[in-house]
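Please predict the structure of the following assembly.
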Amino acid sequence: MLGIVRQKVLGQSLQKVRPAVSLLRSYSSAAKQMTVREALNSALDEEMSADPKVFLMGEEVGEYQGAYKISKGLLEKYGPERVLDTPITEAGFTGIGVGAAYYGLKPVVEFMTFNFSMQAIDHIINSAAKSNYMSAGQLSVPLVFRGPNGAAAGVGAQHSQCYAAWYASCPGLKVLAPYNSEDSRGLLKAAIRDPDPVIFLENELLYGESFPVSDEVLDSSFCLPIGKAKIEREGKDVTITAFSKMVGYALKAAEILEKDGIDAEVINLRSIRPLDRSTINTSVRKTNRLITVEEGFPQHGVGAEICASVVEESFGYLDAPVERVAGADVPMPYAANLERMAVPQVEDIVRAAKRACYRSVPLAAAA
Amino acid sequence: MVTLQTMDTIFYEAQRQGRISFYVTTIGEEAINIASAAAVTSDDFVFPQYREPGVLIWRGFTPQEFASQCFGNRADYGKGRQMPIHYGSNKHKYFTVSSTIATQIPQAVGAAYSLKMDKKDACVVTYFGDGGTSEGDFHAGLNFAAVTEAPVIFICRNNGWAISTPTSDQFRSDGIAVRGQAYGVRSIRVDGNDALAMYSAVHTARKMAVNEHRPILIEAVTYRVGHHSTSDDSTKYRPADEIEWWRMARDPVTRFRKWIESNGWWSGEAETQLRSSIRSQLLLAIQMAEKVEKPPVKELFTDVYDDLPSNLREQEKLLRETISRHPQDYPADVPH
């Protein structure tokens, strides 16, 4: 009952907010456009210029300009001492990065994709994540691990896994997942400046996408706080959380839902660990319904943690069960038709949101 | 070397008596530990495996500091976070021991690379056993050190055993020195039980590493006289008379003592005096460490990150409330 009353009240106040939001939208389309690739490249360039202790290492980051051209021009500008092309050994260069960080440098270690970070996971977890704690503060690891994460297009099972949930379960690590260019710039800068080890999960398919950026974002001192999510779209009927590429899908789903009279609030998590539980719970207390979206496997995923957090802190506010939209519980298939069915699509998010709003017949309990 | 031997005997006994939970001895490898430490400077960084406390002894770690770590008390630099023998000390440039095998090898190379970038007149020394050379990290580390021309000295304590695995089951190469050569790293094999040979090799290696910016591999051949740790009984997998022979006939400490005695620089009385003085210091250190209180509750939550995050602050608050409501369920000797 209270929820309905509150919704009506909020709905009125949001009506006043809405015009301002669309004004902002039209203003931002006149601002500069920047691809995620350019955003990451400029962030790396600026941080390397500002702090001589920052250096980049990984396979193909130098002469090849980066496997995905993220480090374009950096070798030429900073030289081979600060942009290192490593031999093919993730375990090796991750350990070396940790050793350099112990000494006081600030390595940015690139994994060609996070699938290859499996080779190095012992160093990431047992050397980087836990060292500060195990050495009682004597060994700090100001290191950033970055690279594309999750599914791309037609790259098969060993190149498509999302590692957000795996890394986010380990204390001692910080895990970030940018969506657009503003996120990419602000979060990468924050990660490089942070004294703790940070896992920075990019997305290959987003590298080429262009987003508007304001002058504030373009400034070299621009930085986003770690641990704060962003409400990309305000709404009152259902909360949709997402990160990385799925934020774009959630926003598209929200537009479709709007036509059906459902006003969705889309939260771009930005930070998986620490998770912004406060923003998520405040949103759910407003909308009373929650859909979590991720590309990764459903079991023990990011959505599972969000659901637990909301059940623990905002149980009384829920009007519908929390639903997780996630990838299929199978290794990623290669064939395009199968791949499409193994990853969440915009329609999946729309249908889940409608179920949460009791607008469609609920799914039978599935395994 | 005498300090190391005595410390091993007393701390091992302390574990057997139940006063500490775990211990690892360095018996038979005293020369490797002390001679290599003496041959490098205090500006050089050390990345140990776990059988090199002698390097810390040489650098000035006191019996009290060793005991504090083993008892995990309030004075432990490690704040009671790790098992015994996981020593670490920033001021002695001795990187905290971590249980994982061979991970210190690429880390040492990274640190050496950083030293080179900083143009410091120093190198990195890292230790590992024969077993550690089978790990992927060994190969990545050596390869990388050669390619990046990092000033690092790799010291392999080839002591014949990796817990119960003899070297014949560990590798079929001609020891470790050939592996270094295969990676383009200058390597040498040394009698690890000859303190003078160890000193000489490490001393020269350091000069090469620092002046020529190159890695060096030293394979120190020795024997692990003690068990792998207090959780091991090595008589179960190797003959007791083999152990005894190495303990008595090949003891590196005795060998060095005979040499300095023959030169007139040492005597039987000096030996007795030294041993009894060290023994009392160590026994006192253990007695005192046993009485010191454990680290306070707040140290459960610090150092996970650089700053204490809000979720851990909440957990700490919750824990304190629970302890004050149910004090009988919590140990009385943990300070708040």
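The mean pLDDT of chain B is 95. Strands of chain B lie at 45-47, 124-129, 152-158, 161-162, 165-166, 186-191, 216-221.
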